[in-house]
Amino acid sequence: MSLFSDNIRALRTKDKISQEKIAQSLQITRGRYVKYEDGTSEPPYNILKKIAHYFHLSIDLLLSVDVRKIDIQDLLKLENNRLILPIQVDQAGENFIEVVTQKVKAGYLNGYADPEYIENLQQISLPFLGPGKHRGFPIEGDSMPPHEDGSIVIGRYVENLGEVQDGKTYILITKSEGMVYKRLNKNKKNALVLESDNNFYPNYEVKVSDILEIWEYTCNIGRSDKKYETNDIESLKSMILELKKDIHTIKSTT
Q1: Which DSSP string corresponds to 50-73?
Q2: CA distance 153 to 131
Q3: What is the DSSP-derived secondary structure letter of residue 201?
Q4: What are the backbone dihedrals phi and psi of residue 44, each rounded to the nearest 5 degrees, phi first?
Q5: Nearest residue to 35 via CA among 50, 19, 16, 24
Q6: Are 62 and 115 in contact (CB under 8 A)?
Q7: Residues contacting residue 73 through CB under 8 Å, at least 6 positions apart
Q8: Which residues fall within 8 angstroms of residue 131, CB to CB, at 6 or more apart?
Q9: Could you tell me the end-to-end alpha-carbon distance of the chain, in angstroms, rounded to an integer?
Q10: What Rg do the C-alpha atoms of the chain give, in angstroms?
Q11: Cα separation of 170 and 154, whole Å?
Q12: pLDDT tens-digit readout, 173-226
């Protein structure tokens, strides 16, 4: 027996659906479907995809999570059944915000679609953020001032690429780069240009097919109160402006 076979049997039994009815929906014989439930055969990808759509759950969930241990009603379903996210609320009915700390960041790329992983993340509540699914992500490095290394950026989940706006900042979860926080530009047909606010770092592209999740910036949680220092280019600009003012003052007094 496999977790997958246990899951589809549990889902079918819970909804009181016959094996014959599911087999007809999948356009296969009942005998073939029975083998999937008893674990003696594994479905090919095209059938696996049909089964996931039939039960309105992600393939990740059917293969890796025991659905008997979670409440399906407490899961947020995202577009095309690509993945699902658990929703937990506080006593006032507000959604909790899961925070991906530095300690568990490395596991997010594998656990983003796993309800058990998500439910074990630290949680906070920020009612002022308004509607939408929010999550917190850690910031590394100095590429996006004034956000500092160790700060937490809260993002709202973006359900489709059409919501992304040029010039705004987003947390991207990608297959190749992992977790990054950048300012986005959509001037490429099948790619996004990622821009750093620190001019020291060059822009680069990420293919749309490489993106797993996009979260739009909503607020920042930082612990440092040190004064933000401008970079060398900004300092040079300020010096030039001050020099122009001095020259203008000298000319006006002579």
Answers
A1: HHHHHTT--HHHHHHS-GGGS-GG
A2: 17
A3: S
A4: -70, 170
A5: 19
A6: no
A7: none
A8: none
A9: 94
A10: 25
A11: 10
A12: 988 888 999 999 876 778 889 999 988 899 999 988 888 889 999 999 887 777
